[in-house]
Amino acid sequence: MQKYDSILIHTGYYEIDQATINLALREDCKIFTTMVTPKKHRFLKETFPSINENHIENS
Predict the structure, then answer these.
(1) CB 54: neighbour CB atoms within 10 A?
(2) Tell me: the pLDDT tens digits for 5-22?
(3) Which of 12, 31, 32, 40 could cysteine-pair with 17, CB 3.0–4.6 Å?
(4) How would you write the chain as a 3-class SS string?
(5) Could you tell me the pTM of the whole model?
């Protein structure tokens, strides 16, 4: 992963996915992720408010 890359993280809910999101945010990457449930979607938005709402899709 390099600065300003676009990355896709499937099911960004799990610890390893969240660690990857943290690394990507430090590198100013454009993050796309998928979520299984509305509850997990809300959790992700609350945990990582800088992720664009349009970049979180249902899987």
Answers:
(1) 7
(2) 999 998 888 899 999 999
(3) 12
(4) CCCCCEEEECCCCCHHHHHHHHHHHHCCCEEEEEECCHHHHHHHHHHCCCCCHHHEEEC
(5) 0.86
